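Try this one yourself first.
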């Protein structure tokens, strides 16, 4: 089982499949390395696909120190992973929390990005106080009920029921996976990353200066992300926005064929120089 050691000594688990240009994918808060299985199976036919578990998600280390969890730390972990693998430039993507990391990474290290794939991110950017309170309640629920109780409510949220309706078997696997996460890692990630990261609107200047080709994707029933994703489209000069119909948050699992085809078309356009700058 491969690991690399981050600059603060935390061990991060990763996996590599396939050969070709590197494509690295970061998972969401409620997911893990296995969340990308439909994408790994598809893209490893022509790309070197790199997936990994964020700190706090076993088999990666689960640090005890709350200070070990932040958006900046996750960006540094991604940079450390690419350095460990000897990757100078990659297609960098993610979903939700992982997409927030990918976007911040692209702003900080554009020279390391062939392109960005940013899906279902921006939760908490609109009505931030409401979401901060909901995340505080989630941390309390994890403490009081454990991950099983938290998973039952979280996986049945308003942007998750679409997945349950379309694919009850896949949804059950997702719910059970979430229930098996580290309670400590999930709580500290929620408190240190989710609750302290910048909103999408606070990244406006960085996005306006981002010259990297960027694919933005969102489900049309993922209400907390719709306005932030549209704002990203308006800010990032070389961006395109794909909206998935009757879809919630986990669009890579809800609609894997559409997700994969949309990303493949984007990567192909970038590779042949067919993804223009707006205006």
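Now uncover the answer:
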């Amino acid at each position: 089982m491969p690991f690399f050691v981050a600059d603060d000594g935390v061990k991060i688990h990763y996996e590599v499949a396939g050969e070709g240009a590197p494509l690295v994918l970061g998972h969401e808060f409620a997911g893990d390395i296995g969340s990308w299985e439909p994408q790994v199976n598809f893209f490893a036919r022509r790309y070197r696909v790199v997936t990994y578990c964020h700190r706090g998600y076993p088999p990666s280390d689960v640090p005890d120190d709350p200070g070990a969890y932040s958006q900046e730390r996750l960006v540094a972990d991604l940079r450390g992973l690419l350095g460990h693998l000897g990757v100078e430039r990659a297609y960098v993507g993610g979903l939700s929390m992982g997409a927030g990391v990918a976007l911040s990474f692209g702003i900080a290290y554009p020279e390391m990005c062939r392109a960005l794939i940013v899906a279902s991110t921006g939760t908490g950017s609109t009505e931030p106080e409401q979401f901060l309170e909901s995340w505080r309640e989630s941390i309390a629920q994890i403490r009081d009920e454990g991950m099983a109780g938290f998973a039952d409510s979280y996986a049945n949220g308003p942007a998750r029921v679409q997945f349950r309706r379309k694919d009850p078997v896949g949804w059950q696997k997702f719910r059970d996976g979430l229930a098996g996460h580290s309670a400590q890692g999930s709580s500290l990630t929620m408190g240190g990353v989710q609750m302290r990261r910048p909103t999408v609107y606070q990244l406006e200047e960085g996005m306006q200066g981002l010259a990297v080709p960027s694919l933005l994707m969102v489900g049309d029933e993922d209400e907390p992300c719709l306005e932030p994703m549209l704002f990203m489209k308006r800010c990032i000069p070389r961006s395109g926005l794909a909206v998935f119909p009757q879809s919630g948050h986990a669009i890579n699992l809800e609609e894997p064929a559409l997700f994969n085809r949309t990303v493949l078309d984007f990567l192909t356009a970038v590779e042949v120089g067919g993804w223009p700058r707006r205006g």
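Discussion: Strands lie at 3-5, 11-17, 22-26, 48-52, 90-95, 113-119, 214-219, 239-244. The chain has eleven helices and eight strands.
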